[in-house]
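TICKET #2291
ISSUE: user wants both folds in one file
ATTACHMENT 1:
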Amino acid sequence: MGSEARKRARERLKEQRAKEKKAAARRKNLIVIGVAAAVIVLIVGIGYAVLNSDRGEGYTGPLAAQTLQEDGSVVMADDGVEAPVIEVYADYQCPACRQFELTNGDLLKERAAQGEAIVHFRPVSIFAQQQVPISGNSLRGGAAARIAADHGVFVEYNDLLFENQPTEGREGFSTDQLKEWFAGLETSPEQQERFDARLDEEAAVVTEFTEEFLPALTEDALQEIGQETLGTMVLTDLLTWGADNGHDPAFLDGTYTGELIDATGSAYTRYSGDNAFRGTPAVYLNGVLLDNNTAMTVRGLSEAIASASPGKVETQPLDNGGDAQ
């Protein structure tokens, strides 16, 4: 073999080795990618399995009695039941509240139906002072739930609100949607008519409050008392200040929107110390605030209820049963 032939042979061999090296590198990369993808799938699968293993299997049995309270809250328990009291503070625009409902809503229904728990639903609006549309969503959802309570279907409507919770920051809970969801429940045409009429009234109040009254009140408060002081005030305190400084909140009197705002303010003053109300969801067992590991898991909440003594409901039933009567 001549020198030229040997040179061409060496070049062909060099090219062949380069091709084999590239092919080997590609095979290695594909193996690494495949392993990484398998690990990701495994992690996601395990996470999904763990998440769903801690959710209830779904409760489809009868509900315990629903009793509307004087403050607009609702107690789910049959008459005469003595059991631990679970209080659930939730805002219908709160994503974590939705997660709590999806995780433990069926557990609470089942425990109440079995007489093993008294469930006290306490809707609030911690987002009422946020910018529109968050504030409007929160208040409209809460007002609609309160109207549903007048007609004895609070728990069912509560489920629908969380199932259809608007994405935070996007406008939702329109009056048409809220009316449509109520229409899907076992209610009469007369109840639907009364629900729709009251909802229209409340929606107008929410719009006035979030788009006109509160912005003007907040602007004046910033100028008069400053951001530092304003930042320490809950909404009910701000409304009290406003009433003394040219911002009359009387249009909220007698409305479910105003009732919801008052309920939120009461939550901040009802508890103190380690039990202080700081946001939603807040779940109390016999007046003691549960930590997230307990409240946000089926096993944790179930074990807490099972180990607790009977409690006492601190509110009183509404004598006339609400507007539905």
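ATTACHMENT 2:
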Amino acid sequence: MKRTALPPTADAIAATPVLKLRVLSGLALVPALLTPVLLTPDAVLARTATADGAGAAAAATGITSAAPKPIEGVAVYFREGKGNPISRYEPGKGFIKIGSAPEMYQFAASPDGTRLAWITLDGKLHVGDGGTSKIVAKGAAAGGPCLTPVWSPDSAQVAYFPKSNADRSPLMVVNADGTGARKAGKTFGVCHLAWSADGRHLAGYTGTTAGVYVFDMRTGTSVRAKGIKLANHVQSLSPDGRKVVVHTLSPEDPGGDGGWPVGFTPTIVDTITGKKVPIPVKGTKMGAFYLADGRLVVRVLGRTHNTLVVLDSAGRELQRLAEPAQTRNQALLQIVR
């Protein structure tokens, strides 16, 4: 599957290759995704804000006043091309391959940067580290690039969607060694799941791109995020699951096929209030990731290399770190440390 490399201009950045159809290819297994979710009172209460203001947000995400340790630049990248390698980069050591993208691009790197989870066309969920691999589940929905698995924040479990014709797709969770498989609940948000650092929330966009849904692991309920009408990529969730980094679309934008983007203009939305969160970083932004302590890392396009800009919870800049030049046109999958 061919992807378009990112050219060095702001206008050319797009989340996915251009397609004219809004409905994504390969999503026959998840039909009728526009059916509204019927929320129980408990589900609504679980998504209700408890406090406002920066201090409350810091408390909710577990942020303390102690100075955080600067990031080192250890990260996982996907390079499309010969072999489609997925590698962990460590400053001073270089690139360590942890796997390759499968045919339909249904894959995800673990937060600790050591393993890869991927789904093959026969519906098998694999986990590997570049040297060995194991099939940990069967019957996964296959054939849709956006139907990627996702790792838990501690890199111990993998969530995925099985084949289903239900209006809401069941969400399965399995340990990375193949044990303990269980059904967590159902959701409309089946595409490019992100898992919050608190371990409780997952978010994904619908197969029709019509909105983002936040799934609560504790209650097993799925709630549509406010403030997002159309989207075709979810990249990250804040530690408490309240804020989502997403690529939003206008009605005129192509939906794309849900493949991993090299870069996209990120929008951060408070999923409870629907308000957009400013990203006070200049330059052409290519995406953004929340760290486990609540810091936000914004990826900025450069002429020779890209830059990672680290912000605190108030939007103040804490650090700038240059990425290796080799990764300028590669997708950033994980920031490890």
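RESOLUTION: both attachments delivered.
EXTRA DETAIL ON ATTACHMENT 2: The helical segments are 41-46, 54-61.
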